[in-house]
Structure formats: C-alpha cells, structure tokens
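Example 9 (inverse folding). The structure is encoded as follows.
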C-alpha cells in the first residue's frame, strides 16, 4: 500500500551580533574597530525560498528523501516513489557589514509535525557555504541549504516545521 507524503518547511531566522568584550583601558586597534563597525550594522536574515522535499509515496518499508544544497537534486531511497512536484533547496539571504565574516548555524536535526500527532525528523542539514563565509562588498550573502528526511512506512501526511537559522558575526 502506498501512502502520500507532502513536505514543506519554513525557516525562522535569528540574527545575533557578535558579543565581544571590549577593554576600556586598551587602545583601539583595527580588530576592535571592525567589531564596533559590525555591531553598528545588525545582521538581517531573510528567507527567499523554503526547503521543500516535494511529494512522495511511502511503502511499508519506509525510506528517505534527500535534497542536496549544492545541486538542488532530490534523491529517494528505500520504499519511496516520486509523485512529482518540485523539490527546492532553502535559500537564505543575509545582510550586514560589507566584507564581514559570519558564522551560520543550523541545528543537527529538526522535528516536523503532521496530522494525528505524527512527527518526522529532518537530519543532515547542510549548506553550500564555504568554510569561512563572508558578506560581499555590498554587505550581502546568499546561501542554499538542504537536508534528509527519514520516513517510516506508516508516516503519511503533510509535515511542516521550522528550521532555526542563526547567523552571527565571526
């Protein structure tokens, strides 16, 4: 028996300026000047596109749906059949101090809620960012993210949840 499963995710965004203690007795240097400049320009995080794993049918054995953040490709494994629809990576735009290095933090996993008290878990959340991402000269950085959803055989439904994205000045 095949069951329908439709998934869509919504991002919540959190931006936190770097909290750096400053020595009032020390002479200002370039590093503290950069920190002060960054503190004056708060980070703004905007969701451009929500992560969507599309529509699939799940068999009794269950399976997984994965969306790659770099290519945007959706991969199905196990007893899962593609029912169409578009799978989309999440796209986030960050704005702040031009040239500033930032740190993007995604949770290790996120629980989604479906009907009748059912839950599903997204794991392996990953971005297409380099190891040391920086805002561009225009103060803007855009990145994509994807993840993996493991689906049990009896877990049909429309699952939704929020994926907290935290961005901080480095």
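The amino acid assigned to each position is listed next.
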């Amino acid at each position: 028996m095949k069951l329908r499963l439709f998934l869509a995710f919504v991002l919540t965004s959190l931006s936190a300026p770097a909290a750096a203690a400053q020595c009032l007795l020390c002479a200002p240097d370039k590093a503290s000047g950069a920190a002060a400049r960054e503190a004056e320009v708060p980070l703004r995080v905007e969701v451009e596109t929500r992560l969507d794993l599309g529509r699939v049918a799940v068999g009794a054995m269950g399976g997984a749906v994965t969306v790659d953040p770099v290519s945007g490709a959706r991969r199905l494994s196990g007893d899962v059949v593609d029912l169409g629809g578009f799978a989309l990576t999440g796209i986030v735009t960050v704005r702040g101090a031009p040239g500033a290095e930032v740190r993007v933090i995604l949770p290790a996993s996120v629980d989604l809620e479906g009907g009748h008290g059912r839950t599903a878990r997204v794991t392996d959340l990953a971005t297409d960012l380099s190891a040391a991402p920086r805002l561009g000269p225009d103060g803007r950085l855009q990145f994509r993210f994807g993840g993996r959803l493991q689906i049990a055989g009896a877990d049909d439904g429309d699952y939704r949840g929020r994926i907290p994205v935290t961005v901080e000045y480095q």
